[in-house]
Amino acid sequence: MRHVHSVISIESRPNGFAVQRGAVAMHHTPLYERHVARGARLVEFAGWEMPLQFKGIIAEHRAVRSAAGLFDVSHMGQLFVRGPQAAEFLARMATWDLARLAAGECRYCHILDEQGRILDDVIAFRLAADELLLVPNAATTVRIEAWLAAHIDDFDATLENRSAELACLALQGPDAPRLLQEGLGLAVEPFRVEHHGELLVSGTGYTGGAGCEIIVPAADAPPLWEALLARGAVPCGLGARDTLRLERGMLLSGSDFDGSQTPLEASCEWVVDWEHDFIGRDALLAQREAGGYAVLQGVQLEQRGVPRPGCAVFHAGERVGTLTSGTLSPSLGTGIGLAYLSLTPGAEVAVEVRGKHLSGRVVRPPFQ
Predict the structure, then answer these.
(1) Which of 107, 134, 161 marks a domain boundary?
(2) Which stretches of 299-360 are DSSP H helices?
(3) DSSP 8-state class, residue 101
(4) Alpha carbon separation from 264 to 20, 260, 345 (Å, rounded)
(5) Paired residues of 362 in beta bridges
(6) 42 belongs to a structural domain
(7) How confident is the model at residue 21 (pLDDT cuts 50, 70, 90)?
(8) What is the band of 1 on the pLDDT scale with cuts at 50, 70, 90?
(9) pTM beyond 0.70
(10) What span, in angstroms and rounded, lies between the C-alpha atoms of 254 and 276?
(11) What would the 3-class secondary structure string for 253-299 be?
């Protein structure tokens, strides 16, 4: 939804405001006023009023692929786990053995329920021997915090949710390392995290290219945002974030998994370290042994059209799946999407778009 000024009530938050419009509370990041000032088109996302686009999704997408884009991702959660058994605790909770991470390393992994179903996909940061940071998705932060709290008592560790006092900026694209060096005098390697005073800078992102994410105290986010834009970064919204991640086949929480899929079904066995004990491991082992399940695969159209989530996928005249994600790829100029299918790459399919069956093929992401 667009920004509206008829606010019924405003509740102060450490990193912004929760705005009550009717029965729906809308959270704002510390950069909200900067987005309004730049004329961003704002939409509701996971309870937050966030920029969908500034100058346009395609222009922002191309800026990230060719130069550098800057995203406000302060709606993501920041959960800190500390104590002598912090790493052992999170290893039990996650599909990767996070006790194997050295200080300064990051890892993408999943958190599962007892049936092996994905509760969320997260990035874990080993900040020190006795301190880790977990970054869940905006819509799942409360649920993941509660899930961790329900299992932490057996470990010598503590859990702190600092999401309300921190902000996060994602600087992405081939020019991002240069802008980081020129703007802050910093450098970071892929999937490494560095302390710089009150800043945490990690070589991570959601675009499938070079870049970093910068976690800062909320009050420091607006001047940092403006400083990076002044050096040439292009402000980007959720629209470009979605097209960028889909081109690389990255999962979208709530769409590509909704609590009923496992990492095996989501084509993410690579996030599973089978050599350690974690919640959901037995269920995954049983599923892997039994086989016979559909897996998340890419679909690329060979006819012009814009596929969207919910579009039906057909093979040999029979409906075989539904797109969980779909868009027109700005880089390729063709429609792409993801769907759970029991087909092999190269199989011919048709996607129903606006009542028409458009031909395509099953491909293995990232899309080329």
Answers:
(1) 161
(2) none
(3) P
(4) 40, 12, 17
(5) 299
(6) no
(7) very low
(8) very low
(9) yes
(10) 27
(11) ECCCECCCCCCCCCCCHHHCCCCCCCCCHHHHHHHHHHCCCCEEEEE
Which of 218, 223, 190, 217 has the alpha carbon at shortest distance from 205? Answer: 190
Over the stretch 239-273, which tens digit does the pLDDT of each residue have? 999 999 999 999 999 999 999 999 999 999 999 99
Residue 99 lies in a domain: yes
For residues 272 and 365, give the distance between their C-alpha atoms in angstroms, rounded to a whole number. 19
Print burial letters for 134-153: b (CB count within 10 Å at least 16), e (below 16). bbbbbbbbebbbebbeeebe
Residue 221 parent element (H or E)? helix 221-230
- Quickly list H helices, 5-104: 32-37, 57-66, 86-93
- Among the candidates 161, 185, 218, a domain finishes at 161
Residue 24 has pLDDT above 70, yes or no: no
Residue 299 lies in a domain: yes
Mean residue pLDDT of the chain comes to 93
Q: Are 20 and 11 a contacting pair, CB within 8 Å? A: yes
In a domain, 149, yes or no: yes
pLDDT, tens only, 313-366: 999 999 999 999 999 999 999 999 999 999 999 999 999 999 999 999 999 999
Helix (H, G, I), strand (E, B) or coil at 153: helix
The range of the structural domain enclosing residue 350 comes to 294-363
